[in-house]
Write a structure and sequence with these properties.
The complex is a heterodimer. By secondary structure, chain A is an all-alpha fold. In chain A, 60% of the residues lie in helices and 0% in strands. Chain A contains 16 helices and no strands. Chain A is globular, with a radius of gyration of 21 Å. Chain B is 22% helix and 32% strand. Chain B has four domains: 1-30, no CATH class; 37-129, Translation factors (Elongation Factor Tu (Ef-tu), domain 3), CATH 2.40.30; 145-255, Nucleotide-binding domain of ferredoxin-NADP reductase (FNR) module (Rossmann fold); 267-353, Roll (Ubiquitin-like (UB roll)). Classes of the chains: A mainly alpha, B alpha/beta. The A-B interface holds A 27, 30, 33-39, 46, 49-50, 53, 92-93, 96-102, 104-106, 109-111, 120-121, 124-125, 128-129, 206, 209-210, 212-213, 217-218, 221, 273, 307-308 and B 13, 16-17, 19-21, 25-26, 29, 78, 80-84, 301-302, 304-309, 311, 324, 331, 336, 338-339.
Chain lengths: 372, 355
């Protein structure tokens, strides 16, 4: 967070021009979407399914250490693929244009305890619309942490490094609780609302199915390898949780990412919305394999600009988006995974304590205030 | 326990293992045509018929229930990655020894699916199918005298009938622009040589369009014949008028290939099927707002076209994407509805949404 608005040098016309240039990038991808892209997602889905089946097959003999290691590694990768490159992106509607009912945001379900329907609401509608707007985007600290100076400090935040670690280990449950807005809905007056109860029941059913599969049926089918398979599926879920938590922390928490005040988005234009996404997200640099394993959320900036473009196209889009950042003299926040993870964790530790200096304001569309 | 009950228990157990997917999601990877799968087919060959028509040989999945000569099937094929559905007549006989079926497709100008099938379809491609349907068929009690009145690709359902069963007295009057445009020309002349068919072949580029007043000269006993007609709307309209005028309407059976005519106008009447409401909408108001103002329960999300929280099946008609001006048309299928984002789509002519 900076005291000076990093977008203050842009005029309103420039911001709208930027918006038009981004629209043009989007149109180009949409016009060229086709058979190759469709083949890509089908291939990824097919590889994921085969990898999961093979890994679970190997784990039937998990009593043998090599089988445990290979099976657990394979299942971890399969679960990460399911959640990241496949689930997250399909649920965004990135592949809806194919009109394949089997690969569609309205029909897809993922290997996760939060039902797709609820996650889509809290993630696509709230987080992506109100990205980094304090008080509107609950992704800023998930309601359990303080990740921006402008968020009010509370003694509870002293424990946030621990909360964050626990959340990382059981991330899928954290997300399910978050999608249910448990913090708000467990309140006496809200807890018995039929709408909340129905959603809680859906989460309960999803948890039961996931637990039954990973911790009862698969171990039982392993016979004498019951305990080792149980350990393997637990480990795979843990690895998936730690990985996805790390990737997602890197999207909006590293240093250099901007947050916004509630009133700054009143009457926001398309150009201003784009600009907020550009300033409110951070990328991860790395190899093709790394991008793939993050579900291309390493291209978080591009994903936030164009959440519904197919993930396999973010790499080419990033080249053009980066050029626009340079043209408009904006800071493209990116770095290797360890650096970004460290930066995000550093913030979690730092902001567990109250602000040292008096509160300063973030970007505001009202330039006079910033200049004053 | 019966074996069926055992199987169903085993299947339930499998579902517990594969959740959140279904066992079929895995089986589809290796055996898309197996019994119990959604009905699909595999393209095995593409034979050119004329410069712009081709016959596609399809191996249908195990769930295929067969067809009656003259019926059509709906085919779902991915064109440029997008699944599109169209209806085509089955041109193979019902008793084909290898169990394959064929459809014959004529590429029409700007026809996405027909051009793809004729020019780009490759053997090995798996396509989606619906079971055969249609009333344009021969009755079980075969009529003594038959007339087939066809033009252009309207010959396709009739070819299915000709190949299926040999009738005693069959006359066919078929029109096409030129000799080289006549689909199945060799097959037709083989049937003529076999004395299985009397053929009147008209080339409209040189002979002019068929005038039904002249039919008397070509087929003097036309009014006594049970007649099946298939071709462009103009021919069928004329035939219906002609047969009615001569009091023979009950002997005329027609099949229309209705390319759904979409009026992509400035707006239109929007029907919300489930709620049973119909309202007028202009071409600039998002369907989401139109629905909400009419008191229809519309799912909604970001209202700016990114979250897909509002997608709704489009049952008929067309909508315009307010961002790009692109028109999306409803699919010609009772099961495969196009899903549209109501927050960024406006009516482009009359349309119906499933809400």
């Amino acid at each position: 967070m900076t005291a000076i608005d990093p977008t203050a040098h842009l005029t309103d016309e420039q911001i709208e021009e930027l918006g038009r240039e981004l629209d043009a990038i989007r149109d180009e991808v949409i016009a060229s979407r086709g058979e190759k892209d469709a083949a890509y997602i089908r291939k990824v889905i097919s590889v994921q399914r085969k990898l999961e089946l093979t890994s679970r097959g190997i784990l039937l003999f998990s009593l043998f250490p090599p089988a445990w290691i290979i099976g657990t590694a394979g299942l971890s990768v399969a679960k990460i693929m399911d959640n990241m490159e496949i689930g997250h992106n399909i649920l965004h509607g990135q592949w809806d244009w194919m009109r394949d009912p089997k690969i569609h945001s309205t029909t897809w379900e993922w290997d996760h305890v939060s039902p797709a329907e609820q996650w889509k609401h809290s993630h696509n509608e709230l987080h992506h619309t109100y990205t980094n707007v304090i008080g509107k985007d609950n992704d800023l600290g998930y309601g359990i942490m303080r990740v921006d100076e402008d968020q009010k400090w509370h003694p509870m935040h002293l424990g946030q490094p621990l909360w964050n670690f626990i959340n990382a280990c059981f991330f899928e449950y954290g997300i399910a609780a978050y999608d249910l807005e448990l913090g708000k809905n467990l309140h006496k007056r809200r807890r018995n609302r039929p709408e909340f109860r129905a959603r809680a029941a859906a989460v309960g059913r999803k948890i039961r199915k996931q637990v039954l599969k990973d911790y009862i049926i698969h171990p039982l089918l392993s016979g004498p390898s019951f305990l080792t398979t149980l350990a393997a599926t637990f480990t795979a879920n843990l690895i998936r949780n730690l990985w996805s938590h790390s990737v997602i922390m890197c999207g909006h928490f590293p240093e250099g990412v901007q947050t916004f005040e509630r009133r700054s988005i009143k009457g926001e234009t398309r150009g201003q919305w784009y600009l907020r996404q550009m300033m409110g997200s951070a990328n991860i640099s790395g190899s093709k394999a790394m991008h793939f394993m993050t579900g291309n959320l390493s291209h978080q900036i591009e994903h936030h600009l164009f959440p519904d473009l197919p993930s396999n196209r973010y790499a080419e889009v990033a080249v053009k988006v980066k050029a626009l950042f340079e043209k408009y003299e904006l800071d493209y926040v990116t770095g290797p995974l360890p650096k970004q993870v460290f930066s995000a964790w550093h913030k979690v530790f730092r902001l567990s304590l109250p602000n040292r200096k008096p509160k300063v304001r973030t970007r505001d569309r009202d330039k006079e205030l910033v200049a004053a | 326990m019966t074996s069926a009950a055992l199987r169903s228990r085993a299947w339930k157990l499998l579902e517990l293992v594969t959740t959140p997917l279904l066992p079929s999601d895995y089986l589809d990877l290796v055996s898309p045509l197996r019994a119990g799968a959604d009905l699909r087919g595999r393209i095995e060959a593409v034979h050119r018929e004329t410069a712009d028509a081709a016959t596609i040989v399809i191996k249908p999945g195990k769930g295929w229930r067969g067809h009656v000569a003259g019926q059509y099937i709906r085919v779902g094929i991915d064109v440029d990655g997008v699944r599109l559905w169209r209806a085509y007549s089955v041109t193979s006989p019902t008793n084909r020894a290898d169990g394959r079926i064929t459809i014959t497709v004529k590429a029409i100008p700007d026809g996405k699916v027909s051009n793809h099938l004729v020019r780009k379809a490759k053997p090995g491609t798996v396509i989606q199918l619906d079971q055969a349907t249609g009333e344009f068929v021969l009755p079980a009690a075969r009529p003594a005298k038959v007339l087939y009145l066809t033009a252009g690709s309207g010959i396709t359902p009739v070819m299915g009938m000709l190949r299926d069963s040999r009738l005693a007295d069959v006359v066919m009057v078929h029109s096409a622009p030129r000799k080289e445009d006549v689909i199945f020309r060799n097959d037709l002349h083989d049937l003529v040589a076999d004395k299985a068919l009397k053929l009147v072949e008209l080339h409209t580029d040189t002979d002019g369009m068929l005038d039904l007043a002249e039919l008397e000269k070509l087929v003097p006993d036309w009014a006594e014949r049970e007649t099946w007609a298939c071709g462009p709307a103009g021919l069928l309209d004329a035939a219906e008028a002609h047969w009615a005028e001569h009091g023979a309407a009950e002997r005329l059976h027609t099949e229309r290939f209705r390319p759904t005519v979409v009026v992509a106008g400035e707006g239109g009447e929007v029907t919300f099927g489930k709620t049973g409401k119909t309202v007028e909408a202009d071409g600039a108001t998002p369907l989401l707002n139109v629905g909400e103002e009419a008191g229809v329960l519309m799912p909604s999300g970001c209202r700016m076209g990114i979250c897909f929280g509002c997608v709704t099946p489009l049952k008929s008609g067309a909508v315009r994407d307010l961002r790009t001006g692109e028109i999306t048309e409803a699919e010609d299928s009772p099961t495969a509805h196009v899903l549209v984002q109501t927050c960024v789509s406006a009516a482009a002519g009359p349309c119906e949404l499933e809400r």
